[in-house]
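# step 3/5: fold
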Amino acid sequence: MRLAADVRNRKPWLTVTIADCEVQTFRSGGKGGQNQNKRDSGVRVIHHPSGARGESREERSQLQNKRTAFIRMVNTSEFKTWLRLQGGQDALIQERVNKAMSETNLKIEGKDEAGRWVEL
């Protein structure tokens, strides 16, 4: 069970929530009678950084359609491509930070008795 414990203790390197997306609601028509004719039960979820879109209008409940639309958006090829690129960029950023923080690039300064900045 060590593997299961390791998976639970991992910190996510990237999270995407519904707050990262634009959520549009609309009247969807179809089954559901007047509920769908009067209420905005259809949902479209757009993740702007990736250009991915998901849409659902099958259920009478807007909440259920929102969940389905989000799942469909995450399963698009646009979103999966964006996700792979984000993973590569994170590694590149980490490499740049490590290089910038090397001892040859750092210097320590302090103030002398006269209040001037000097390298220590």
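# step 4/5: annotate
DSSP finds four helices and five strands in the chain.
# step 5/5: archive (pending)
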